[in-house]
Amino acid sequence: MDKRRVWGVKACFSKSTFQIFTRVIGLGAAIAAPEKGGGQCVEGCPFFKELRLEPYSSRGKMIIARGLAEGVVKPSRELLNAVAACTTCGYCMYKCALQNVDVIIALRAELVRLGYTDPEHERAAKMIANFGNPYSKSLRRFLRLPRGGETLFFAGCSYAQYLPEKLDKIGEVLSRVGGVGWFGPDEPCCGNLLLASGQIDAFVTYGEQVLGKFKEAGVKRIVTACPGCHETFSKEYPKFFDFELEVEHLTRFLAGSVDEGRLLPRGLNARVAFHDPCHLARFSRIIDEPRFIIENVAGVVMVELKHNKLNTICCGGGGGAPIVHPRLTAKIADRRISEAIEADVEFLVTSCPLCEHMLSRSAKRMKTPIQILDIAELF
After folding, report:
1. What is the pLDDT of residues 132-157, one digit of tens each?
2. Which of 152, 165, 168, 263 could cross-link 257 (Cys pair, CB 3.0–4.6 Å)?
3. Is 360 helix (H, G, I), strand (E, B) or coil?
4. How many angstroms separate the CA atoms of 107 and 109, rounded?
5. pTM of structure
6. Phi, psi for 104 (deg, rounded to 5)
7. Quick one: how many helices (H) and strands (E) in the chain?
8. End-to-end CA distance of the chain
């Protein structure tokens, strides 16, 4: 490790942000990154595809991080706008040896420390602190599952906000398998948006409250259908807290139930493709399980989209980007639906509330008959 590079970060970043930096990536990667500069991450970056401007690419943000750390780049609202233009899809990390997304989040955290926070992200943080979700004062959460238990389904905020009918279906499928309860309507938010937007102190404060609720409920295992919640609990909480709960994504849980003969998918005579959510595929490496489920659906012709598995492309819904850049993230979603149209599929199956929300809106906007299905709707 080149200590001079780490010193450069430490000298220019706050102590708290530097600790996040080193805890997450282990090196002064933001300083080293622009010297490597291969640029393999650029062409697949969702925002760069739309704008063709370097500051909106992953490489550009790494250069900004270096410049800010060395005092060459000054913080500004314009800089914040570029740094907020990231869905944290992880394509850059798929193409690069560096932990780009972690650097971008640390960069956002430093801008927050310097007094530069997007107003929409601030509003969402207040909603989470006051109401336990980033959307509204009350979210409709009602599942036909028993309250409490050692294994609980964590519904997440986005299903309740955008897809309550699909949340009902997930609850119905889980009730058939048995052995899974749920928190109830007072379920907390995982806090992913706080972390993704760089509001680290708020994330830690809220996360401690979440852990208190888990302990009070006696939870040992969480099953969640949201890749963002899954990645936050399984990957991020252990970095900040003493977190020992088992975390399982719904696709893996359902695939196991099918494999054990406890659950059988319904028939569907159609051409079907699976859209890999970025956080499910690239961050959690859950790729085969949803395909196993689809392959067990009688009558289905399974096809792959042009970009699939680890090489998936983003729906535009992550990283807190849609509330800052709604038009650009809509265009990102349109690119994915264009691939589904090209593949001539009738159904696009996925397992992420933000993906389903973004892609459903895109399909409607593009006037295509392609239907977006949650994986639970195959049962």
Report:
1. 999 977 777 778 899 999 999 999 99
2. 263
3. helix
4. 5
5. 0.88
6. -65, -40
7. 20, 8
8. 51
What domains can be seen in the chain, in order of their start residue? 3-116 (no CATH), 120-253 (3.40.50), 265-378 (3.40.50)
Whole-angstrom Cα distance, residue 13 to residue 69? Answer: 6
pLDDT tens-place string over residues 333-356: 999 999 999 999 999 999 999 999
Q: Where are the alpha helices (DSSP H) in the chain?
A: 3-12, 15-25, 29-36, 46-51, 58-70, 77-83, 91-95, 100-113, 119-131, 157-162, 164-177, 192-196, 200-217, 227-231, 237-240, 250-259, 278, 288-295, 326-342, 353-365
pLDDT at 7 over 50: no
CB 101 within 8 A of CB 92: yes
Strand partners, 341: none
Q: What is the mean pLDDT of the chain?
A: 89
The residue among 349, 204, 218 whose CA lies nearest residue 271 is: 349
354 closest CA partner among 346, 362, 345, 366 = 362
pLDDT given at position 141? 73
